Amino acid sequence: MKKIRAIVSGQVQGVGFRMSTRSQARQIGIDGFVRNLTNGDVEIIAKGEAEKVDRLLEWAKSGPPSAVVNKLEVEVLVDNGEELKGFEIRR
Question: Fewest 10 Å CB contacts: which of 50, 59, 69, 91?
């Protein structure tokens, strides 16, 4: 299992990034959430099989067609046992 925190920067709010991320994550089969940050970035917390998490990160490098991703920062997290069921949009 792999758990990450990713910060996506660029034109990533108001372009359907969170909904597209949720759709991708559910299709791939990983748990976690996505939310907008006050500075205009998007945060992704994802947990699942390493290969599946990596697939989501690869997708997040460009995001949906309406997004412009300038930077993707990824931090591998220690799995603290936090229960993440499904993948949701948080506010």
Answer: 91
